[in-house]
Amino acid sequence: MSKQHVTATINGEATEFLCEPQQTLLDALRDILNLTGSKEGCGSGDCGACSVIVDGRLVCSCLMLGVEAEGHKIETIESLAVNGQLHPLQQKFLEHAALQCGFCTPGFLVAAKALLDRNPNPDETEIRYWLAGNLCRCTGYDKIVRAVQDAAAEMRR
Amino acid sequence: MPTLSYVAPGTVKDAIAALSGASGLVKVLSGGTDLLVQLRTGRVKPDLIVDLKKIPGLIGIKDDGAGAFTIGAATPCAELGEHAALCKAWPGVIEAANLIGSTQVQGRASLAGNLCNASPAADSVPAMIAAGMTCVVAGPKGERTVPVESICTGPGKTSLAKGEFVIAFKLPKRAAKSADAYLRFIPRTEMDIAVVGCGVDVSLDAKGVCTAAKVVLGAVAPTAVIVADAAKALVGNKLDDATLAKLDAAARAACKPIDDKRGTIEYRVKVAGVLARRTAAIAFERAGGR
Predict the structure, then answer these.
(1) What would the pLDDT profile of B230-250 be if each residue is shown by its tens digit?
(2) Among candidate residues A79, A108, A125, the one where a domain is terminated
(3) ipTM of this model?
(4) Model confidence, pTM
(5) What is the DSSP string of chain B?
(6) d(CA B30, CA B19)
(7) Is the pLDDT of residue A1 over 60?
(8) Cys staple from B51: which of B29, B75, B243, B271, with CB 3.0 to 4.6 Å?
């Protein structure tokens, strides 16, 4: 089958691309659109490194076909910092040392943003359950949770 | 090398035509949280994927205003959990649906996908069966409404004929003094596959005596099991110790589980009894029995 034409809004911009039916949204973002912030960890929806927001809902971009993006609004990690100004979550991840190797970080940031978009004041339990689909093998999670709480507090100010 | 094609028809009629007209392996796509993993591992190699999500009504929840609900087959489970009236009327169905996978998976996974993937451990299935949920199946011969328990016939196998797919689920108006509940046992607190799942639905009279019950176990047999003897143990009784003991024994007797890394046969059988008691207690409490 030849490539299919897809039109979607990606990080606020109307975007068109051609992709093979079997390519995932993650493949399309990374290999076609050069948005390499979203990472492939497991490729099976277990690790959350490829998290993106589709029409306001957090999803794994490895569990969605590129062609399924047709007509939808996609937000990736590349949309967090605006004009070089870090998002409060990014800033707090740095301040709290909530990353070591950094591979899982884009996924955690996108997932945390999706949480704070819905709930500006989540408690620790809510944060831990919400982020249960994001795996990190360096930090032990505590610093990540604290960074999210601190960013939430700052964003409420 | 065979190549994959993808279509996203805009009507039920076009979807039926695409599914029944195709040669080779055709897969229906709703949320994709199982199908994409199977594609990646090479476990399924379809020639055609038919995405149902562009069909109007396939995503969304309709409340008829009189207490009955129609749930579009591909509605993400996260959306179910955000629907206050649905959560209030059918808490067991919703807690089961919301146990499937992570936040990310919840954003895509659907009831139809969970049902038609036909895993014996599917969380939503025992809860849907306990609730008496029906599904609307569309196909070349028209539409039919069937009980959820008629769909799965074995691991990975369904009763759906070529060209057929689930388009919606239906939940009736919730009767007074009745409620459902679902519990699953996993070795950790989140993100795992059921060792045992249990859905219970009960109706009580004014004195709190059970007048109707349904008890359904998951992950202990090739498909979800309706435990008629467990329901029999509940009907005519309050949830006293003798009733709980009978319920526990009936649940254990219905198990035909496998041994695997999540649990041995003996362990699964034991847990099924415990889970049936605990789930029944929640359903009774919600129905106002305590």
Answers:
(1) 999 999 999 999 999 999 999
(2) A79
(3) 0.96
(4) 0.96
(5) ----EEE--SSHHHHHHHHHH--S-EEEESS-TTHHHHHHHTS---SEEEE-TTSTTSS-EEE-SSS-EEEETT-BHHHHHT-HHHHHH-HHHHHHHTTSS-HHHHTT-BHHHHHHTT-TT-SHHHHHHHTT-EEEEEETTEEEEEEGGGTEEETTEESPPTT-EEEEEEE-PPPTTEEEEEEEE-SSSSS---SEEEEEEEEE-TTS-EEEEEEEEESSSSS-EE-HHHHHHHTT--S-HHHHHHHHHHHHHT--PPPBTTB-HHHHHHHHHHHHHHHHHHHHHHHT--
(6) 14
(7) no
(8) B29
Domain-terminating residue out of B171, B192, B227: B171
Q: How far apart are CA A85 and CA B4, in angstroms?
A: 42
Does residue A96 surpass a pLDDT of 80? Answer: yes
Interface of A with B in 94-123 (CB under 8 A): 111, 114-115
Q: What is the pLDDT along chain B (290 residues), one digit of tens a residue?
A: 458 999 999 999 999 999 999 889 999 999 999 999 999 999 999 999 999 999 999 999 999 989 999 999 999 999 999 999 999 999 999 999 999 999 999 999 999 999 999 999 999 999 999 999 999 999 999 999 999 999 999 999 999 999 999 999 999 999 999 999 999 999 887 778 999 999 999 999 999 999 999 999 999 999 999 999 999 999 999 999 999 999 999 999 999 999 998 899 999 999 999 999 999 999 999 999 65
Residues A72 and A96 in one domain: no
Within an 8 Å CB–CB cutoff, is residue B5 touching chain A? yes
pLDDT at A140: 87
Q: Which domain holds residue B216?
A: 179-287
Residues B92 and B190 both lie in one domain: no
Domain that holds residue A48: 4-79
Q: Does A135 lie at the interface with B, CB-CB under 8 angstroms? A: no
Q: Does residue B274 lie in a domain region?
A: yes
Final residue belonging to a domain, choices B136, B152, B171? B171
Q: Which of A44, A51, A68 sits opposite B37 (nearest CB)?
A: A44
The answer to whether A68 contacts B51, with C-beta atoms less than 8 Å apart, is yes
**H or E element, residue A152:** helix A142-156
Q: Give the minimum alpha-carbon distance from B32 to chain A in angstroms, rounded to a whole number.
A: 6
Chain B residues near residue A57 by CB distance under 8 angstroms: 76, 78, 107
